Amino acid sequence: MNKFVKKMKEVLGNKTIMKKIGFTLAMLALYRLLIFVPIPFVDISVLMSSTFDAGAAGGFGYMIMLMGGALSQLAIVSIGVSPYITSSIIMQLLSSVVPHLEQLTEQGEVGQNKISQYTRYLTFPMAFLQGIGMVFIMNSMLGGAAIDTGSWAIVLLSAFILSVGSMLLMWVGEMITEKGVTNGISMLIFASIVSGIVSQVYTSLTTGSSIVGVLLFMVAIVLVLVLLSIFILKSTKEIPVIYARQGKVQQSSILPIPLNPVGMIPIIFAMAFVSFPYLLAQLITQFQPANAKLVSIANWIELNLNIYAAQPGLIAIFFYVVFVVAFTFLYTLITFSPDRISDNIQKKGGFIPGIRPGKATATYINGVLMHLCFWGGLGLALIAIYTYALNWIPFLTDIASSLWGMPVVVAGSGIIIIVGVVQDLMNKIDTDLVMAKYEKY
């Protein structure tokens, strides 16, 4: 407790950090205000009379919660930063296969700035396509009378406005990254999830759930999830490295490899990929094409691959777990290079005890990475699907109903993201405090 109080005094006494915190809060306030600005073509009377929430919005209830209510308002920022995230995924994957982009990744800050520029260019068309689909889907959820989807001019203009809103959020996120306390895109996602959680807890309390049940839920479930998330995100395997000079051992160090080398990114990627067929099926059923077989396939996808439902099908859960583990492996291979790590160790005259320098060291590090990726990815997946387990296991379902009388409002993926953002925030503040002390002396 004394350490916490001391740390808080250091933060409050540092004008630079307080200025960054103030700027971040101002940008988040701007984001929350934009959520209440609907696109111009919405029938306000229909929007105001519609009463749906994350618990009653069918397959998109969880998505609505993650967006902090923007979707239910048909706001100009309804599609959020997901197009930017998708564009970042595409650019990172291309950086490992396209020679020009691979060269840019090796050019340091200049190359990264160029890749970021390409990512921005790609974000707008991705946002426009997603905006078209979102107009049809959200209009259907609002009863089909909120927007005149029979006019393609209105649909395209609405999608354009949604695209501009997404680009505005991208700018807000980049400003937070540049002048705030942590990564801006992660902070926007964090704010949306926290807002959605608070809204759901409030809804549960106002509909008859006891505050004791809410507290039991928060203490018994959320605390356990937070501890598990911290364990997965902070655990490391330490590989000893010995550096020798002129045949004599002079120094030894540790090469730390995290249990989960890529944080919460695999969950975000997996959610996007496993939900894509469902979103596509929603569009097909909206247009009602004459191809009966295509409609039948779309109906099957809606029934079995709806990961946003309160009780998704086992097929959707299976693919969700597979995608989380697979993206953990994939993103680790993109981010970490065992060959490069091995070369750096060898160039500095180091070696791992019992392992030959060079290729053997790279093979050993790669084996450790793959082992950690499997267990780290599986741990992420199990936390991500715990809410679904509550609905599929009768014993747990009965306990949840008898104790709380309320829906499970906090998804495991949301907890992982919250813990990851808070961890990054604390690391950034610690770094700024160290730099302040360094500049002082």
Explain briefly what this protein structure is.
This protein has 441 residues and is mainly α. It contains 18 helices and 3 strands.
What count of helical segments does DSSP give? 18
Low-confidence stretches: 51-59, 403-409
Tell me the CATH superfamily of the largest domain. Answer: SecY subunit domain
- Assign an overall shape: globular
Strand fraction equals 5-15%
Question: What's the helix-strand series?
Answer: HHHHHHHHHHEEHHHHEHHHH
How is the secondary structure organized here?
Blueprint: H1 2-13, H2 15-34, H3 44-49, H4 61-66, H5 82-94, H6 99-105, H7 108-141, H8 152-179, H9 184-206, H10 211-234, E1 236-245, E2 248-258, H11 265-287, H12 292-304, H13 314-335, H14 338-347, E3 350-351, H15 359-384, H16 386-392, H17 394-403, H18 412-440
Antiparallel strand pairs: 1-2, 1-3
Helix pairs in contact: 2-8, 5-7, 6-7, 7-8, 7-11, 8-9, 9-18, 10-15, 10-18, 11-12, 11-13, 13-15, 14-15, 15-18, 16-17
Structure, described:
By secondary structure, this protein is mainly alpha-helical. It folds into two domains: 206 residues, Preprotein translocase SecY subunit (Orthogonal Bundle), CATH 1.10.3370.10; 202 residues, Preprotein translocase SecY subunit. Helices cover 71% and strands 5% of the residues. The chain has a three-stranded antiparallel β-sheet with strand order 2-1-3. Helix 2 runs antiparallel to helix 8.
